[in-house]
């Protein structure tokens, strides 16, 4: 598999939900930049617009205005600039959601292997890579189980494996460590950092988790729909 690279740039992004009296301005003016190989934190109070920002960047919802760039391709500038949003979502963005959405009738291995298979990777190779990811996330022993048979933390680790499976240039993670104990939370962050370095992935991690916040080198704070950048502790993960 070839690695696709390219950072993320977000300029003056605005998102208004609804119209008229009931309109909510969830993002006012967001500016953010994440380089290939970098893992940045995104923190802010409940309702500050964190999930909205990730959904815009992941092309799940459409921003109201502003600009978003992946690599050197403008994907949004006061309207989508690429014709095929499904391919963008499938091949270029890995999503780890607040709640893991695994497909209930596929076993763990096939949940992880599915996107690469849909992207045209032969089944055998996709499953082999899925098993490697499950092993690095410490859930290989559950490879044949169905999602309903897993604990919440195990489901979350499988959903992280799934987000990594297509080696997307961008990974967006919304509270990925919330259901995990501190040792497993740190091992997830270690895997994301390794992924970022080896595959030159740009990774944004939304979190309230005090265990992992000190590991970021850079953090964006979001409040009232606006971002402020801050230097993080960048604590070593070794
Ligand atoms: N589909 C929607 N329609 C209308 N308003 C919405 C919608 N989704 C979110 N909002 C509002 O937009 C604002 C930002 O919501 P968002 O989900 O992005 O916050 P968040 O920072 O992710 O919060 P949390 O930490 O609780 O997950 C909130 O005021 C929320 O009520
Ligand atoms: Mg949220």
Automatic annotation (TrEMBL):
Residue ranges of every copy of the ABC transporter domain listed in the record: 8-238
CDD domains per the UniProt record, alphabetical: ABC_MJ0796_LolCDE_FtsE (cd03255)
Gene Ontology MF annotations: ATP binding; ATP hydrolysis activity; transmembrane transporter activity
A single GO cellular-component term on record: plasma membrane
Record carries keyword Protein transport: no
UniProt-listed InterPro entries: AAA+_ATPase, ABC_transporter-like_ATP-bd, ABC_transporter-like_CS, ABC_transpr_LolD-like, MacB-like_ATP-bd, P-loop_NTPase
Keywords for this protein: ATP-binding, Cell membrane, Membrane, Nucleotide-binding, Transport
Pfam entry (one): ABC_tran
Gene3D superfamilies for the chain: P-loop containing nucleotide triphosphate hydrolases
Record protein name field: ABC transporter
